[in-house]
Amino acid sequence: MERRLTHGPRRPAPMTLDVERARRDTPGCEEVLHFNNAGASLMPEPVLRATVGHLELEARIGGYEAAAREEDALERVYGAASRMLGCAPDEIAVTENATRAWDMAFYSIPFSPGDRILTAQAEYASNYIAYLQVAQRTGALVEPVPDDEHGQISVPALRYMMDERVRLIAVTHVPTNGGLVNPAKEVGKVAREAGCLYLLDACQSAGQMPLDVGGIGCDMLSATGRKYLRGPRGTGFLYVRRGVLERLEPPFLDLHAAEWTARDQFEIRPDARRFENWEANFAGKIGLSVAIDYALDIGLEAIRERVYSLAKSLRDGISEIPGVVVRDIGKERCGIVTFTAEGKSPEEIKDALSTRAVNVSVAPPASTLLDSQARGLDGMVRASVHYFNTDEEVERFCAALDRIMREM
Ligand SMILES: Cc1ncc(COP(=O)(O)O)c(C=O)c1O
User: Fold this and answer.
1) Count of alpha carbons within 13 Å of 15, Cβ hemisphere only?
2) Contacts of 34 (CB under 8 A, 6+ apart)
3) Which of 93, 131, 246, 268 has the CB geometry, 3.0–4.6 Å to 275, for a possible disulfide?
4) Which pLDDT tens digit goes with each residue over 158-195?
5) How far apart, in whole angstroms, are the C-alpha atoms of residue 63 and residue 43?
6) Phi first, then psi: what are they for 301, rounded to 5°?
7) Cβ-based neighbours of 247, under 8 Å, separated by 6 or more
């Protein structure tokens, strides 16, 4: 028997966009209740068609020939990403994922012994591992800035920690383990005042909220295609501000990133494509450009409003289920909801939901080690909503979780 959750009527998520159309465009909505949009979202039909269309063209006429024929479509991704971020197309590099985009920027920075890297507590494991490696190699220092009372990076603490040895502030905008939205713009103000480099990992925020690199004040920003942008897997991109581009020498170069000009000379190209390499996922690039345009057409402000509201309903709903504790923190919280369930591992919950065609993922403690240790968290279930999800799906999710908690 289904237990009625005691919550009163929740405020329906605002129809800031055409949800019916978004669902019609998303074949996956017929198959699953997809709350794993921070893992990989469901591609909309136009993205799928563009990606598969290019693969089919490659199969029919040849990969190089398909690239030549679709040159304009392949170029469009730079324009689309630059429109989304408010920068110039030549400040964009397209990469195979967000990690490689971030790495290309980070490993380009020439650190010296004693240089300081300031970061946040909820930093992503791959970024932190890179800090540690570079610190071991160069003698740079890695220093996490404390959180404030809301759980976001404390801007006053950051300001207090600044001195002339701070070479880089590198922060994750939305961590992998919850809805927290770090105050990217306020961090940017501190970086601009100090004149140090600022790298923002926008992997989880790109596609669920507006991102304006000028307003944020970052020098570099990395993002992925498959998450909130709803693009194909194996795509990502990097923004690097023109003013810092030429000071950053990529850790790897090839004949696309640089030109072999004489027997013992090469010249690195002047634009952000110095961070790319020659061979790429061409179908993915076309799909990514369609995905970005699709999000821009709907409007990132409208997307944010609906996503935040659905996530709030989800937090309210699951917090009424006995034994379930919502774990994500922050003054501003986005579409990612993390929780633990008493007596059940996150994997057990994920598997039980999966048998009901409900998709979530697990946030393991090592993905954000500092934050997990500080809060004593041993893994969480991560449910992440998108604008094409509905109030009815939130209700169904809560009912399914409630049943699992009582039956397992
Ligand atoms: C905060 C954050 N940064 C970076 C990444 C890595 O992105 P990608 O898998 O596209 O390399 C992730 C992936 O989950 C993430 O959550």
Assistant:
1) 5
2) 28, 41, 42, 359, 386, 389
3) 93
4) 999 999 999 999 999 999 999 999 999 999 999 999 99
5) 23
6) -70, -45
7) none
For residues 165 and 210, the answer to whether their CB atoms sit within 8 Å is: no
Nearest CA to ligand 1 atom 16: 176
Q: Which atom in ligand 1 lies closest to the alpha carbon of residue 173?
A: 1
> Pick from 31, 399, 347: which is nearest to 407 by CA?
399
Give yes or no for a contact between 327 and 178, defined as CB atoms under 8 angstroms apart.
yes
Q: Classify burial at 268, counting beta carbons within 10 Å of its beta carbon; exposed 0-12, middle 13-18, buried 19 or more.
A: middle
Distance 62 CA to ligand 1 centre (A): 32
For 25-65, how does the pLDDT look when each residue is reduced to its tens digit (9 = 90+)? Answer: 999 999 999 999 999 999 999 999 999 999 999 999 999 99
Nearest ligand 1 atom, CA 236 = 10
Contact 311, 334 (CB under 8 A): yes
Ligand 1 center–CA 98 separation, angstroms = 6
Determine the distance separating the centroid of ligand 1 and the alpha carbon of 111, expressed in angstroms: 24
Record the tokens describing residue 378, joined without a space. Answer: 């041993």
- Expressed in angstroms and rounded, the spacing between residue 203 Cα and the centre of ligand 1 is 5
Residues framing ligand 1 (Cβ under 6 A): 97-99, 124, 172, 175-176, 201, 203-204, 224, 236
Ligand 1 atom nearest the C-alpha of 124 is 1
Please state, in angstroms and as integers, the Cα–Cα distance from residue 89 to each residue in 54, 71, 93, following that order.
22, 15, 9
Sheet with 141-144, strands from edge to edge, namely: 92-95, 236-240, 220-224, 197-201, 166-172, 116-119, 141-144
To the nearest whole percent, how much of the chain has pLDDT over 90?
A: 95
Structure tokens at 26: 């998303």
| Residues in a beta bridge with 239 | 92, 221
Kindly state the tokens that stand for 407: 């039956």
Two tokens, residue 248: 């950053």
Contact present, 281 and 191 (Cβ < 8 Å): no
Q: How far apart are CA 44 and CA 93, in angstroms?
A: 24
Place of tokens 């507590």: 121
Q: How far apart are the first and last CA of the chain?
A: 14
Residue 261: count of CB within 10 angstroms of its CB:
9
